[in-house]
Amino acid sequence: MSRDWMGDSLTLAARAVKLALEDAGLKKDDLDGLLVNAGVSGAGPRRDGNLSLNLQTTLGLRDLKLANHMNGAGSTAGQMVQYAALAIQAGICNVVACVFADAPLTPGQSAGAAYGSRGPARGIAALGTHYGFFGANASYALAARRHMALFGTTHDQLGAIAISNRKWAQMNPRALRRAPLTLEDYHRSRWICEPLHLLDCTLVNNGGVAVIVASPERAAGLKQPPVYVQGMGQGHPGNPRRAGYENEVNTGAAIAKAAAFKMAGVTNDDVDICELYDCYTYTTLVTLEDYGFCKKGEGGPFVADGRLEPGGPLPTNTGGGQLSGYYMWGMTPLSEAVIQTRGQAGERQVKKHDLVLVSTQGGVLDYHATLLLSPHKSL
Amino acid sequence: MNQHSGTTAVPRPAVEVDEESAPFFDAAARGILMVQRCDDCRAWLAPVARLCTECLSESVSWTAASGRGSVHTFGIMHQIYHPGFESEIPYNIAVVELEEGPRLQTNIVGCANSDITVGMKVSVTFDKISDTVSIPKFAPA
Ligand SMILES: [Zn+2]
Hints:
The complex is a heterodimer. By secondary structure, chain A is an alpha/beta fold.
């Protein structure tokens, strides 16, 4: 992960799979499944170096039994693990590499340009651009504003999330933002789109992350302790964009949680660590509400007292998340969850890590996938 | 506070009317806000609906709305993504919920950004940006 150019997304994805295989103690010929997600490099014009299913050729993978280029926006990482697990359980394949890679920052392009640009539009679609709606920053600002207006959520409360993330990031050698951060720094950071300050927004970087999914039998005896998927679910509420719906303050996390917790047979009290998709501070807040850690509308007070910080009762985004760690879409929470579940997080390792909750989320709170991970085969 | 597009050196992005949106912009030029409505179940729909989201009827028609509504949510943009907004930042973006139900992206005009609130009553007004195109915006009612 870096803000510097390290290669195109295809190269980064290939490196990530290579590293994941080495980490697991597997050879590339052990892979018979490949799921890829290309981030914004998958959305633009097709270029040779953009990650797609061409990764199979790049890695020289032969006779795969599962291959797909997936796009559930930011929820894709969680979804890839789910489809891999389902395919393995169904006997379709045995060992699946799930990989995300992206290279939005080129020497000539800023983060804003990579994520905020819009192609030419006509008709009604052109109106949004004319009004000045650009990028995810605008959409999430509107969502956060709705929450603030309905429930009285404050900047101090959103700032508490940014500060908590930074405290965790300071213990993560991979994190890209590690300088100390105070509430004053947060308030002083420039507006992007009110009510969002710069420090409410994710950083953007280049990089790649891969995870390998296999059956418990196949994973036994490999180089790393296995991470068991105890529960999984998805929730995609759909936004009718008309009266009577509150999509800005209700996400698919609630739907996904019900399925995942039922599958695992657990409750919120059993969760030791939360690794949540945190493209914005507000995303963490609303996801905690929808997961039922507090009532709807009470996310602000819930996060304000250091609850999510190192040493707090609900350690959350323990690698610094996307805000201070690194932005690899859903692979940010998923990768940190794997590290914590294995007990390999070093200085920032949370002592009790029997159950780790992972949220991956995309669109504008539109798409959601939940995973419950554990070092234990049975809970 | 000035949200008129003609005041910047580089204009805001143009709006090109296509066949599908022509009824909307023809009405806007006459000072009428159109949304879509299902001919079968009468549900009000935001443009552009290809099907009725309630009954899946393909029979949806452009229908004049009252033009009255309230601010569902809003933001104040400080970041420049297009040169047409350089002299306008900070400018507001808003979602207005019409009395009929559909929510539209828009800008609020006729008041300072600092006076916009969620729930504020607004009504439509039209910004003529070219000889053929008028853009619906909303002002405090
Ligand atoms: Zn209908």
